[in-house]
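Late entry, written up from scratch paper. The run itself happened at the end of the previous shift, but nothing got recorded in the book at the time, so transcribing now.
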Amino acid sequence: MTYHPKSDFLHILIERGFLADCTDLQALDDTLIAGTVPAYIGYDATAKSLHVGHLLNIMMLRWLQKTGHKPITLMGGGTTKVGDPSFRSDERPLLDNAAIDSNIAGLQGVFAKYLSYGEAPSDALMLNNAEWLDDLNYLAFLRDIGRHFSVNRMLSFESVKSRLDREQSLSFLEFNYMILQAYDFLELNRRYDCVLQMGGSDQWGNIVNGIDLTRRVLDHQIFGLTTPLLSTSDGRKMGKSQGGAIWLNGDMLSPYEFWQFWRNTTDADVGRFAKLYTELPVEECERLGALGGSEINAAKIILANEVTTLCHGAAAAAAAEATAREVFEKGGVGDDLPTLALSAEEVAGGISVAQLIVRSGLAKSGKEAKRLISEGGARMDDAPLSDPGLMLDAAALAQPVKLSAGRKRHALVTLAG
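Output as recorded:
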């Protein structure tokens, strides 16, 4: 039987496709109706930006706030020192405090685009679990918290079992991660009355651990809710492209490239992604997803504009659309394309077009660039390239040169100064 929630937040999650599992849907629904609910998602500070793979959960926090509840963005200043082993085949590289703090500063800029922070009841809180993890007394922690965990049960979790089944090493450091994440939920409940942890479905075991620990230690009822792990309709992991991760920080990926990622959405994903990644009414999302033929391209532009406006602002979305029209429809050179600026010294002896394709981010290696050219997939100023050894000098670059990989990826090469 399909559950029909009474709370606005759960109604939106179910209607728009966010919900995978919940520990007690009806009790959580009642709690959401009774008053403002603080809820958190944790983010380890392993990079200076989040990427599109995180955007599903960020949108969920945004809807939480829009329906009158309190989002908590928990930075993993402590847990990043350990590393989450969930569904990884190897151990994460360990970062020092300075790198972690620098990454957290970058993440804060991402969340500020989507959430309102402040002192009001539904204003978001930015917290760091180093606040309670950094000064833990090891023996006291083992005695007070460790005794509540069964190693037998921890070994049964899919994230751990998959590593052991493949006979891949799982360090004692990583094995402690799930205990620390459970302890986070306990501390957030104790300090901030947080009663809900949300995350991707790969976090289900960690979330349930926190609920169980909090019940044992504080005898409080708290809840867990997960989103589906998304892949595109053609089987690719959401948030990845040929060029790498689709970052949410504009200094790591230009707003134009971000816009272009959404413009290139597969036809079958348009309606689903509009529900998850925009605030358009559900009926409009379904209408866009049902379009066919050339009309689906107009729907993709709407999707790209809506998602880019939330992340980078309306002006950036409009500029990206204008650049795309200039590049695709008129065969011109758009002002907003990713640009590689070379110094006169760098091109003094000439530089090969294959090198330019790599340095502009259109290929990951010289080998890949040469293959792209040999297969007829590369163009310079809209003319097909056939010679990877073609050399360009300062005179050839006196005017900006447009490089293209396939029909959808472009970059400009210019001389600096």
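The chain has three domains: 8-227, 254-329, 339-415.
(Scratch paper discarded after transcription.)
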